[in-house]
Amino acid sequence: MRKYLSSLLLLILALSLVACGPGPASKDPDNDQPGDGSTDTPEEVSVEEQTLIDQDGIVIKATRLDSSWLGPELKVYIENNTDKAFTVQTRNSSVNGFMLEPVFSCDVMPGKKATGAITFAADDLEACGIDTITDLEFSFYIFNADSWNVILESDIIHVKTSAANSHKQVYNSAGVILFDTEDITIVYQGMSEDPLGLAANLYIENNSNEGITLEAMNTSVNGFMIEPAFICDVMPGKRALDTLLFYLDELDACGIEKITEIELNFHIINLETWDTIIDTEKIKIEVD
Questions:
Q1: 176-286 — its CATH code?
Q2: What is the pLDDT of residues 206-216, one digit of tens each?
Q3: C-beta of residue 32 within 8 angstroms of C-beta of residue 25
Q4: Which end of the chain, N or C, is less packed with Cβ atoms under 10 Å?
Q5: Chain-centroid distance, C-alpha 234
Q6: How far apart (Å, rounded) are the C-alpha atoms in residues 37 and 148?
Q7: Tell me, what's the pLDDT at 209?
Q8: Are 72 and 65 in contact (CB under 8 A)?
Q9: Residue 157: in which H helix or E strand, if any?
Q10: Where does residue 5 fall: left (phi above 0), alpha (psi -120 to 50 degrees), or beta otherwise?
């Protein structure tokens, strides 16, 4: 759930700026100017200019990896050679194998061009221990700006940086194992405070060949039934850091000042078909 709240906050902040600018006079993507933000890319790396989509009158190119006050951003150049206005967004995004939701939405009118930036929050990268970006993965979701009808859902796109062959990401999976199979691992990594409440931190690893969605079911805190804010998508071969967020007003209503015990079941389904993969047995988390 943390990634959704973080993305919502970032989106609100980003909307106060220019999320997607008009296209350059020339078709040369290099006319896109670097951002002047003060936040550096975790370690200076670069990407080669490359075409990501060239289909049905839609062209999207990655031009470079830049930095902004929010965090690193992949600059993109978009052409709309169709007769309909469309909106371009990203789905199923990851950085160095961690599921991270960027800020990105770009409207392009028929026959026009635009430049935009797929921005990843510096705080999210730091939480995942990412100090050098080696690879970005995401899919494009393109829909009619007026009717919202889907125009194109791309396959997963891979963008490698100049550090792809020289840096290896380290994954911190330390903690209390809540659920562990050959395909899926869930680890409890302690509690943290959130402006909205108290959060149980989870590390989730998906080693299966299908995307999964995790939900919390039948959840209780200190013996009181309280449903947390939690839903987590993890693509095949990826990892995620997320939280079971318990809102302060619900905790206060139950007279809970400190969480000592959490009980729940995880409901795990296929991300695409919604078919149930497994409903775990009751899991108890003892909070120090």
A1: 2.60.40.2550
A2: 999 999 999 99
A3: no
A4: C
A5: 10
A6: 33
A7: 97
A8: yes
A9: strand 157-160
A10: alpha
